[in-house]
Design brief:
By secondary structure, the protein is α+β, with helices and mostly antiparallel strands. The protein is built from five helices and twelve strands. The strands form three sheets. Strands 1, 2, 3, 4, 5 and 6 form a six-stranded mixed beta sheet that branches.
Length: 263
């Protein structure tokens, strides 16, 4: 009953252009913090905090055999783990639907933007190439994991460095890193815009997320080029609403990307 009443209150406030914490509909929580190189064992890592939401991202590099249909390219994969310490709603075990969606949405924005020059990851066509694995872990889920995860992954990729490789044996020395950066040629950032009672909002809290009707996650690059979109929620979106949501997402991506300049 309390949950239903809270959803009704949130929807009613949204209809008036208000929120429980007195933010505007398109205002992010504070603080917004980005810390990098927080892990000594990862090739790149970042911790992002938006309000009380805290997410970690770590990059690991390995040398693998390329896929047959992309013999001269490396690869990238994003995984997400929603650990119990970040929310009482999460349990240990196989990835949940929410974890899978978080990983796929984050991965898609990077992959479809062709953010990483995969051909530059190739060592020997058909035989050896660098593969990037990015792990996203939630430390505290207070809402808006999509944006926090996207920012953490981008920061981790930007600050990742290749490990040292023995020229004779080809063995990777993960304890030492070179100054060589990943061939990151674009910087897509996902922003999720929500619809509650006809109003469009960003950076929802956990309480607000339980009241949304629809959402649209839009990944865009520095110049506003859109690489991917993912719709969620049961309510439909009009063409006009989608256009407005895209505009908001591109604008807020520029805002969040500014946080990377402070690290």
């Amino acid at each position: 009953m309390a949950l239903i009443m809270n959803k009704i209150a949130i929807a009613a406030l949204a209809g008036q252009g208000k929120r429980l914490d007195n933010r505007t509909l398109t205002q992010y929580r504070t603080p917004i913090k980005v810390d990098t190189m927080i892990s000594k064992t990862a090739e790149g890592s970042a911790k992002v905090q938006i309000g009380d939401t805290v997410v970690l991202a770590g990059v690991k590099l390995s040398i693998e055999k390329p896929y047959n249909d992309t013999a001269d390219e490396g690869g990238i994969m994003v995984n997400a783990e929603l650990v119990p310490l970040s929310s009482p709603e999460y349990e240990s075990g196989p990835p949940t639907i929410k974890a899978v969606e978080l990983a796929r949405v984050t991965d898609r924005g990077i992959r479809e933007a062709k953010a990483v020059d995969m051909k530059k990851l190739c060592i020997i066509p058909g035989e050896k190439a660098w593969f990037i694995t990015v792990d996203v872990i939630t430390l505290n889920d207070a809402g808006n994991l999509f944006d926090a995860a996207g920012l953490a992954v981008l920061a981790a990729l930007k600050h990742a460095r290749f490990p040292v490789v023995d020229e004779k044996t080809g063995a990777i020395n993960y304890k030492e890193h070179t100054n060589k950066e990943l061939p990151l040629i674009k910087e897509p950032l996902p922003i999720t815009v929500y619809k509650i009672n006809g109003k469009l909002m960003v950076d929802l809290t956990r309480e607000e997320e339980k009241a949304y009707d629809a959402r649209l996650t839009v990944a865009s690059d520095k110049d506003g080029t859109i690489s991917a979109m993912q719709k969620g929620g049961n309510a439909p979106l009009t063409i006009n609403e989608i256009s407005q949501m895209v505009d908001i997402a591109v604008d807020k991506a520029r805002f969040l990307r500014e946080q990377l300049k402070h690290i």
